[in-house]
Structure formats: C-alpha cells, structure tokens
Amino acid sequence: MKPRVLTILGATGTIGVNTLDVVARHPDRFKVFALSGATQVERMVEQIRTHRPRFAVMSEPAAAAALRDRVTAESLAVEVLEGATALAEVSIAPEVDTVMAAIVGAAGLPATLAAAQAGKRILLANKETLVVSGQLFMDAVAASGAELLPIDSEHNAIFQALPRDFDGDFQRAGVRALWLTASGGPFRTLSAEAIAAATPAQAVAHPNWVMGRKISVDSASLMNKGLEVIEARWLFNARPEQIKVVVHPQSIVHSMVEYADGSVIAQMGTPDMRTPIAYALGFPERIDAGVSGLELMGRQLTFEAPDTARFPCLQLAFDALAAGGNAAAVLNAANEVAVARFLDGVVPFPAIAASIAHALDTLAGGPAATLDDLLETDRQARRVAGAYLETCA
Ligand code: NAD
Ligand code: MG
What pLDDT sits at residue 82? Predict the structure, then answer.
C-alpha cells in the first residue's frame, strides 16, 4: 500500500497535534510532506524532529527566521518557508494527496481553497472557510473533484450517519433533518448576569473538550454551534430548517441524522478529536485512533433546547444564514475580532454578540459573488466591528 502524503496546515494547534498523534500510530500509512504553524517555534522544532517533513511553513516571518536558526543548529533536513503564499504552495504540491486544514479563522481560507481547487483530499477542521466562502468553496470542490471529509466532530458524526452515497438530495436519501449536538459550553447553567461578568479564563475552560482559545470562546457563546449550522448547510446541502440544534452536556452523542421513517442514527464516542481525525485519515477504512471504548454503564445522557436569549450568537448565525450573500462572512469576521478583544481582556463577553449584530446591520446585503468580494467583506467587517468594540472597552 502506498502511504498517503500529508500537508498539515495548523500543525502546532490542538487539531494539528491530535492529527500527528494519529499519524504516528500508522507510520506505514502516512508520510508527512509539510507542516505549518504561526508563532510556536519550539513546538514546530519538536514536530520536525519526530515527523521529518520536507517543508515547514511559519506564517509569521519572524518565527520563520527563528525556526531557520534552530533547524540549522540541529542540522534538521527541512526547508523552512514563510507567509501565506507558502501555505498554499505546500497544499497544492503534486506530491501531496491529503491536506488537513486546521488553521484557525478566515486566515485558513486561501490555502484551503487552493487545496480544493487542486483536487486534494481535504480534511476540513477550519470551519471558518465554509462560513465565509461556502458556495465558492463547494463549487471549487465540485469542479476539481476534490474529496471533502469533515473533521468537526458533529459533521463527522453526520457524515458517518448518512448513507455512504449521499449526494445532498435529502428527499432521495429519505433524510428529514440533521441534529447537531452542542455541549452548551462552560456557561450553560449561568445566569445572564453571570455570563456578562465572565472572564476569559472562565470562557476557555471547556467542560468536555480541550481546544484552541478562539473555538473555546465560540463554544462559550454558542457561536461555535452557529458556525457549525452554517458549515452543515454547505457540507450536506441542507436547508436552514433542516438543521436542528440540541444541547447535550455530556458530549457523547456527537450528532444525529433523522430519517423519513422515524429512525434517528447517532454517532457516539468518548469526546476525543482523534476519533473524527482518524476516521477521515483512514477513510473508508477504520484505523486505530488511540481512543478507548465508550464507558456507558451508569452514565446519563441528557438533552435540552438551546437558549438563544442568553446565547444570542446562535440566533445571529441562523439570521446570517437566512440572509445569505455576504452575511455569514460579516458574522465570522466580526466574531473573530470580538473574540480576540475579549481574550485580551479589553471588552466584556456580551460585546461579542453586540458587535456582530452591529456589523450585520451595517454590512449585510453587500456583494458576495467572488472571492475578492468576500475578502473585502471580511476586511470591512473587521473594521466596523473593531470600531464598535472601541465603544465597549
Ligand atoms: P489552535 O488555536 O489550537 O491552533 C490554530 C493553528 O493555526 C496553529 O497551528 C496556529 O499556528 C495556526 N494559525 C493561527 N493563526 C494563523 C494565521 N494567521 N496564519 C496561519 N496559521 C495560523 O486551534 P484549534 O483548536 O486546533 O482549531 C483549529 C481549527 O479547527 C479551527 O477552525 C477550529 O474551529 C477547528 N476545530 C477545532 C476543534 C478542536 O477540538 N480543537 C474541533 C472542531 C473544529
Ligand atoms: Mg464541533
């Protein structure tokens, strides 16, 4: 069997590290071509030592310079590249068949889209790419014959619960609805007042999953579920009313598909991202992920409705999806800016939803036909949300 040749974008992040953990369990199946990071030089040096890629890309030039010094000092056989163009180059290289897209935020869009245009197998963790450019991205996948495998645990669960030959036709497949489960995040049981006073440390302390800081705040605001609703719309060709959200605090049921005959097929497991990562890496085979079996004895699984009054970000995402056009790109960019300001301790938690609502009011309805339109929307929304957040500081 020829090993699969991988580029891992965002290798130094949480998803990247989990991906390399699974890859290391199967040295005969996978070969690492390129790894990317932004600023974490020491972690990248460790990953180069262990996985021996041909290329290491640091998006930050200063980090690339520091990495060059380190690899020279250790005589590591790797070429260090820098910047956004290099991210795309290592994603479309002819040697590469699989790209793990695990950069956080819209920063991951250009390289992920390039991989789609080049017809690669894409393991998609970077949900922001689909939120910003859903139609364009799916068109690129269809045109090139790229293969898209979802890494987000909910979408990976739905992918597993759908018929293998599902082509986006709900009627023909007898699919009535997609049910996304949400843990509810660390603020699930807090009052609106307590949420308003929440600190960054409280927001990133997720009860079930260990994740990067941005997605952890998104989980606390339920924006993560909102982004996932939009992600599901594009991945599975679902209409908004076919996508349901249910809060399931134990994160054992990772999501469900409801069929016309009343059957509901769920995918379950211990909350560990190595499961969806291994599923996508090995697809269509099942491979060891290093994850132990699910211990169900004595466990209670509970389900409740999401509360969009305390968590307005979820409703904002449904609104942006209904509005169409550039609205989801506005929502995503405003959210990225607001989350960064919140994590810096500059604005309070409710400023996140407020600045997104303001950016949507100001910018939704603008052009969204081309990638340039969407990137311009992204820039404008960052400006508009940033200015609004100044008033919240
Ligand atoms: P993280 O913050 O742990 O890692 C982010 C990675 O992106 C790092 O390698 C970082 O160096 C790189 N990066 C950051 N900014 C960059 C930039 N401007 N240019 C290039 N590279 C940059 O994040 P994560 O938790 O691994 O999440 C990555 C993506 O996967 C996100 O889109 C997230 O929504 C998605 N995701 C994560 C999880 C999870 O459990 N962590 C689950 C589902 C989906
Ligand atoms: Mg998820």
Answer: 98
Domain of 28, CATH number, reads 3.40.50.720
Report which bound ligand comes closest to the CA of 15: 1
pTM over 0.85: yes
Q: Is 107 in the pocket of ligand 1 (CB under 6 A)?
A: yes
Claim to verify: residue 329 and residue 293 sit in the same structural domain: no
Same structural domain, 130 and 239: no
Tokens 């290289």, located at residue:
93
- Does the beta carbon of 325 sit less than 6 angstroms from any atom of ligand 1? no
What is the structure's pLDDT at 1? 80
- Minimal CA–CA distance to 187: which of 177, 195, 197, 199? 195
Contact in structure between 30 and 4 (CB atoms under 8 Å): yes
Confidence bin at 100 (pLDDT 50/70/90): very high
pLDDT tens-place string over residues 40-59: 999 999 999 999 999 999 99
Is 128 touching ligand 1 by the criterion CB < 6 Å?
yes
Atom 5 (ligand 1): residue with closest C-alpha? 13
Euclidean distance between CA atoms 132 and 127, whole angstroms: 9
Domain boundary among 253, 272, 307: 307
Residue 281 has pLDDT above 90, yes or no: yes
The ligand whose atoms approach the alpha carbon of 125 most closely is 1
- Provide the token pair at 56: 């290491």
